């Protein structure tokens, strides 16, 4: 019953990326939330068996990449195979954020976070990251949304009104552009 109800919650779709001394990896994530304004902090929920889980602990930094409505292939690429078995960045265009976290070149926006704390929450670990760098890379693209176990786009009647893009841009500029980046 809880599974049916929880599938009714809508989420953005993100790729969480991390670099350690010897490894670069990423994973698809939907369980991400802002937890503080001052300092700006985000939370990502990761199951301990995920390869990225240990890499975030080792690195101390990670990036959250916001995806666009047309990037379902990237979501599947980073979400359906383990980085223990394949190089998820092979053939993927990316650049490094200031602290070395990989950022997907095709992302709408990214947040590079310094790991501030961790909490055990049921079968996941909550990684709390203080945002040290944030940048809007593309302002004219709708974000992808995940609901009921599948990806969907913002309905066309809302896209035409630019409601989601306008709200996304407003919130990003108001809350996610750090004072030293203005």
How would you describe this protein?
The protein has helices at 2-6, 51-59, 72-79, 156-159, 163-176, and strands spanning 11-12, 14-19, 24-29, 32-36, 41-46, 61-66, 94-96, 102-104, 109-121, 124-136, 145-147, 150-152. The model is unreliable at 152-161 (pLDDT under 50). It is globular, with a radius of gyration of 16 Å. It is α+β, with helices and mostly antiparallel strands and 182 residues long. The chain has a single domain (2-181), classed as Roll (Pnp Oxidase, Chain A). It is built from 5 helices and 12 strands. The longest helix has 14 residues, at 163-176.
CATH evolutionary superfamily: Electron Transport, Fmn-binding Protein, Chain A
Q: Specify the CATH class.
A: Mainly Beta
The tally of strands reads 12
The average pLDDT value, as a whole number, equals: 81
Largest sheet: 7 strands, antiparallel
CATH topology: Pnp Oxidase, Chain A
What's the overall geometry?
globular
Write the topology of this structure.
Elements: H1 2-6, E1 11-12, E2 14-19, E3 24-29, E4 32-36, E5 41-46, H2 51-59, E6 61-66, H3 72-79, E7 94-96, E8 102-104, E9 109-121, E10 124-136, E11 145-147, E12 150-152, H4 156-159, H5 163-176
Antiparallel strand pairs: 1-11, 2-3, 2-6, 4-5, 5-10, 6-9, 7-8, 9-10, 11-12
Structure keywords:
single chain; 182 residues; alpha+beta; Pnp Oxidase, Chain A; seven-stranded antiparallel sheet; three-stranded antiparallel sheet; 12 strands; 22% helix
């Amino acid at each position: 019953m809880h599974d049916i109800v929880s599938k009714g919650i809508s989420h953005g779709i993100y790729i969480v990326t991390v670099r350690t001394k010897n490894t670069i990896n990423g994973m698809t994530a939907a369980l991400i939330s802002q937890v503080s304004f001052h300092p700006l902090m985000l939370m990502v929920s990761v199951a301990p068996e995920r390869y990225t889980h240990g890499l975030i602990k080792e690195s101390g930094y990670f990036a959250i990449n916001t995806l666009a409505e047309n990037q379902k292939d990237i979501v599947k690429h980073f979400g359906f195979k383990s980085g223990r078995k394949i190089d998820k960045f092979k053939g993927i265009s990316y650049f490094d954020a200031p602290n070395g976290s990989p950022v997907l070149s095709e992302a709408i926006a990214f947040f590079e976070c310094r790991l501030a704390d961790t909490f055990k929450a049921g079968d996941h670990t909550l990684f709390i990251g203080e945002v040290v760098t944030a940048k809007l890379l593309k302002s004219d693209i709708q974000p992808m949304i995940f609901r009921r176990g599948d990806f969907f786009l913002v309905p066309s009647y809302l896209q035409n009104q630019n409601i989601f893009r306008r709200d996304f841009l407003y919130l990003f500029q108001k809350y996610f552009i750090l004072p030293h980046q203005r």
